[in-house]
């Protein structure tokens, strides 16, 4: 056995059986979460009477960054729910019986969930390659999972 294989077995605890959630399941979970967050954003826009800064009818992705509350709402939604000790998942992941765990299969902290969220922004900014990696990596990890040291796995594995 190579030294690299020994390190990987120790680091990722691969001897422990895990079923990692694949790209399609995670994409469906994200689409559910996207609908929930969109509704939440519309409610907040309505309550606080936020005016749009976009002058045309075309939506630009940079608009997401022009209003800090979008980032704050998304960050709190993902970080609080994924670090919750009972669910360890957003609503979309819970519906599909997925949960976010660290490399040892334990729940993640709010700080680690926050780091994972902000790494998702980087995954998206590089043309989504950080997300596409999920389909091709051995442990079904995206760039944000690798950087935060997390997995998304089925809840009962």
Automatic annotation (TrEMBL):
PANTHER family: LMO1584 PROTEIN (PTHR36115:SF9), PROLINE-RICH ANTIGEN HOMOLOG-RELATED (PTHR36115). This is Uncharacterized membrane protein YckC, RDD family. Its main location: membrane. Keywords: Cell membrane, Membrane, Transmembrane, Transmembrane helix. The chain crosses the membrane at residues 21-48, 60-80, 117-136. It comes from Mariniphaga anaerophila. It is a multi-pass membrane protein. InterPro entries: Pra-immunoreactive (IPR051791), RDD (IPR010432).
